Amino acid sequence: MFLLNNLSTEQKEIVEYNDNLLVIACPGSGKTRTLVAKLIYEGMKLKKNEKVAAITYTNLAAEEIALRLEANCADDHFYWGGTIHSFCTNWIIRPFSHVLEELKYGYTFLDEDDVEEIKNNILDISGLRNIEFNTRRNQNGDLINLNDENELILIEYDRKLKTERLVDYDLILYYSYKILIDNPSIAKNLSTIFKWILIDEYQDTQELQYLIVGEIIKVRDNKTKLLIVGDPNQGIYQTLGGISKTRQEIMDCIGGYNVHEKSLNGNYRSTQQIIDIYKNFQIYGDPIEAKGKNKAETSHISLIRDVSVENLAQFIRDTIYELHNNKGIPYKEIALIAPRWQELINLARSIKQLDPNIPLDAAGLSPLCKDDNNLFYHLAKLFLSSPAPDKVVLRLRWANNLLESLTEKIPHISLSTLSLQKILKITNSFSSTSVLGIEYLKEGFMYFFDKLNIDINLYSNVKVELTEFESKCIKKQKRNGIGDSISVYKNGFTNTGGVTFITSHKCKGLEYDTVIGFCLLWGYLPHWNNIFSRETDENEISKKLLYVLSSRARNNLILIAETGRKTSKGTPYNTNRHLIEVFR
Fold first, then answer.
1. Angle at 435 between CA 432 and CA 439, to 5 degrees
2. 3-state DSSP call for residue 508?
3. Using CA atoms, how far apart are residues 244 and 3, in angstroms rounded to an integer?
4. Which of 189, 283, 448, 567 is the most buried (most CB within 10 A)?
5. What pLDDT is attached to residue 77?
6. What is the helix (H) or strand (E) element at residue 396, kind and residue range?
7. Which of 358, 317, 365 lies closest to 341 in space, CA to CA?
8. Is a pLDDT exceeding 70 seen at residue 376?
9. Number of other residues whose CB lies within 10 A of the CB of residue 360
């Protein structure tokens, strides 16, 4: 196997290990390469209808694994990849909702925007503001974070969901766990299908997620094996319940079966100079050593504290031009990383005003309504992306997601009447002169269903989804304020080769030649919510976020703590204190 021959000794040992395994992997250690090799290695042993599941923290990570499988000429029929919520939705909730009292009479999935709207409505009715609360649940379905301040709000939120049979992300996990606990035959069925479960970014895994996987492993006496990979130093989702469990704690979750532990310590991404910066933020583990070809090269590293927020866009625009024009760094190898999307959106808007021709590339800047349960989201991705050779595998996955959604919601559609190839042929043949993103998509939707001879007016559920999709896109479009053109909607879907805009929470697993971090101010990073939270240590959150952000860089790291940002009370924000300690 070609890929196996190109692994390091420690990577190869992980791939060939034949039992439950916990792998602690530092940044740049070849974690994804190892996971892909493991998928191929185990996939070659499977019988018909058996699969390997790779549970990732984001859909983007699952798509990256699928692309790498294709690059290694591997048939991915044996592979299922996606988030834990996607796994639970597709393999537990949808096929087995009828066995659960709360779901058997129907239900509606909520996305993040839906949840935010419900929360805001409850706060408005209550006349309250600035009350932070999350909706995590324990294995009994109880809300975990009730306190004197948020109790009435959370109880009303819970009442609304239960009364209207609404299912948010946390209820997806609880209901899935309840289905498996009450129906061991379902867990047994899943164990028969999935011979291996690979979990990426385990440090961001919630308790219920561990328990769900544990039920699948326990029910057939450890016949389903577990490979769990991550880095406790990158555990930045503590407020969402992410837990870096120890080897023994993982063993307890899967019924006491043994879990071995190995490490990936070498960094093949960054220069040693970059590593020497972010090791200051490292909380756990051994020292990290650069092992890549660039390990001894000189990096440009700086902390800039004398740029005002008013001049920030001009400064960053000039920095990007310097990197691209004078140092020859491609735009796509430059990333702008900040703690929150709003600051990224504001900066993108300002840079575009200064120079409309500078290429920017970020899915997070697109007004597209990102709802995996809405079939028009899957269809929109096909219309917004081009049928380029390097997009074939990705677009096939999107087409498959669309096909599954269509066959669920339009009864007479089946695999015999609609194929992935036909979906791609129709979407690839669409053209329009519309310059407005939402109008372009609506034309595309009508074109698609006309080609299938389907009148969506006959399907009220589909009409509702279209209305919701359009409404959410327009809301996000107004909120972002960077335009309504089709080019804005295509952010992140076309090969523009532009500068990436991404948050410090979403950049995990990615890498760039040069990282420019900004808004690195105490109160933004860490956020006030972390600083005043009863659950988190703001110093630990600060170090982990800086560790994640800095470790994305291969060769250059530019950190900016701009002046002029003020709190709602007019108090100036100060530079992140851990950066001051490193760059004093």
1. 70
2. coil
3. 29
4. 448
5. 79
6. helix 392-409
7. 365
8. yes
9. 21
Average pLDDT score over residue span 457-467: 90
Burial of 265 (0-12, 13-18, 19+ CB in 10 A): middle
C-alpha span between 39 and 65 (Å, rounded): 9
Nearest CA to 313 out of 284, 336, 283, 287 is that of 336
CB atoms within 10 A of CB 212: 28
- Nearest-CA neighbor of 1 among 97, 72, 59, 86? 72
pLDDT at 73 over 70: no
Cβ within 8 Å of residue 542, ≥6 positions away = 522, 525, 526, 530, 576, 577, 578
Residues with Cβ within 8 Å of residue 277, at least 6 apart in sequence: 301, 550, 557, 582
DSSP letter (8 states) at residue 7: S
8 Å CB contact between 185 and 128: no
Query: Residue 324's closest CA among 291, 362, 345, 355?
Result: 355
Answer yes or no: is pLDDT of 496 > 80. Answer: no
Burial 507-542 (b: 16+ CB within 10 A, else e): bbbbbbbbbbbbbbbbbbbbbeebeebeeeebebbb
Strands 553-560 and 512-517: parallel
Distance CA 584, CA 580 (A): 5
Q: Cα 94 from chain centroid?
A: 22
Q: Which residue has the tokens 């974070």?
A: 145
Length reported for the chain: 584
